[in-house]
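Bug #2210: token dump truncated for Response regulator receiver domain-containing protein?
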Amino acid sequence: MSKTKETFCVIDDDLIHQFIIKKMIAGIPADFEKNVLVFSNGLEAITYLKNAISNHDELPDIILLDINMPIMNGWQFLEQYKSIFPSLNKKITIYILSSSDNPHDIARVKEFKEVSGYFIKPITENELEKLMTAI
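Reproduced locally. Full output below:
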């Protein structure tokens, strides 16, 4: 059975990257409606999730998370996310999408069971399509 709506959450301070990801998601053929939430830092995103905790339909299905951002970076977001994760009552798939190819960053992802993968920017349309069909 196909889903009728998928919500993607892009957490990235790069406005150009936000625009490109939104266009890529919109351009990938799918048998469901796509909605994209965009936040410029982890604090905006975690605040949204906390406020939407009781409304399952407002929560994203996939989060594409940058690491290096002002105010609250990706690692800080993940620490906060761990504390609200049990209350969400929805499986949200998180992927790190970063320009960092630092082996320390890539290894650190393993500390977070909530993260399903790490991709170096720019992500290709083919990789993004695979993420969309994996959930």
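Output looks complete on our side. The longest strand covers residues 5-11. Marking as cannot-reproduce; reopen if the truncation happens again.
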